[in-house]
Automatic annotation (TrEMBL):
Top-rank taxon: Eukaryota
Name of the protein: Enoyl-CoA hydratase AKT3-1
Family statement drawn from the similarity comment of this UniProt entry: Belongs to the enoyl-CoA hydratase/isomerase family.
Database matches in InterPro entries: ClpP/crotonase-like_dom_sf (IPR029045), ECH/Chromodomain_protein (IPR051053), Enoyl-CoA_hydra/iso (IPR001753), Enoyl-CoA_hydra_C (IPR014748)
Length: 314
């Protein structure tokens, strides 16, 4: 979860924003200003929330705003209607295959990276079926709650495509290489059973109507009781930790040393002894340890073209 752009304008009310193919709501709905829990809804129910470039732009912007907004603590992502997401809108497609491959960036990957880089955790409420990018874009989330009677799948191979949205990084780390290989190679859709998905889904609920309320319950608990700074640093350690037990120990020790000097640690201890809810106020953008990010950040912007006249003559 490296740093994100700083030139993001944060609105007073997310409900006043007009973003294409998504809707952002406060929790509770109608609150005049941003709330600790916000709900992002994929909002193309007439198309089963099929993914579009405009939806990708809206989601990417939304996660960048949440990252920059200290009022937001937790995000819930869900869909309108009976399906969470039917994958890419194939009537629109993926472009015309023109231009350089080096300049192409898949739109699902932009969303996944924005979610992953956001300091605030995302809980996905899959109230209905999801396939393709509807599944891969949820992988950077901290939790996925789904409907037990719906079906889910990574169907790319059945459409003549490879996986995207950084799924080759996230999926095997979440479910193991064996299950990931089975899911992406069969391209089939399955009920949310452990034998197919392992523990990819944190909770599987019998009724679709239960999914969003449960996700909001979990999000509210996290917003009220979890330090955003500690949560963000811990997730970064999990995703970008050391490559050996010794390296993990050295890195965790440095980050832990930083954390025990922060006000959130003092507040966490005091609230425990005083038997009250904590009031964590440290903005992760300001309170992250000096070494953060401790891994090399790749530049994912398009490569700069150099004309013949601009090339070095050396």
């Amino acid at each position: 979860m490296p740093s994100m752009e700083n030139s993001i304008n944060v609105p007073s009310s997310y409900e006043a924003l007009e973003l294409t193919h998504i809707q952002i709501s406060h929790h509770p709905f109608g609150a005049p200003a941003a709330t600790p829990v916000v709900i992002v809804t994929l909002n193309r129910p007439e198309k089963h929330n099929a993914f579009t470039p405009q939806m990708a732009d809206s989601l990417t912007l939304a996660f960048k705003m949440f990252h920059a907004d200290p009022r937001v603590k937790t995000i819930v992502l869900t869909g309108a209607g009976k399906m969470f997401c039917a994958g890419m809108d194939l009537d629109i497609g993926f472009g015309d295959n023109q231009g350089r491959a080096a300049d192409f960036r898949d739109i699902g990957g932009r969303v996944s990276l924005a979610m992953h880089r956001c300091h605030k955790p995302t809980i996905v409420a899959l109230q209905g079926s999801a396939v393709g990018v509807g599944m891969t874009m949820t992988l950077p989330a901290v939790s996925r709650i789904c409907h037990g009677k719906s079906k889910y799948g990574f169907v790319f191979a059945r459409r003549g495509l490879t996986i995207e949205s950084c799924a080759s990084y996230f999926l095997p780390r979440l479910v193991g290489f064996s299950r990931a290989m089975h899911l992406i190679t069969t391209g089939a859709v399955y009920p949310p059973l452990e034998k197919y998905f392992g523990d990819l889904f944190t909770e599987v609920l019998p009724e679709a109507s239960q999914v969003l309320p449960r996700a909001l319950e979990l999000a509210q608990d996290m917003a009220e009781n979890v330090s955003p700074l500690a949560s963000s640093m811990s997730r970064a350690l999990m995703w970008e930790g050391g490559d050996s037990p010794e390296a993990a120990h050295l890195l965790e020790s440095r980050v832990f040393h930083h954390m025990i000097g922060q006000s959130d640690y003092k507040e966490g201890v005091n609230s425990f002894f005083e038997k009250r809810k904590p009031k964590f106020e440290t903005d992760p953008r300001e309170g992250s340890c000096p070494e953060y990010p401790w891994w090399p950040e790749l530049n994912i912007s398009r490569e700069t073209r150099v004309s013949k006249d601009e090339k070095s003559k050396l």
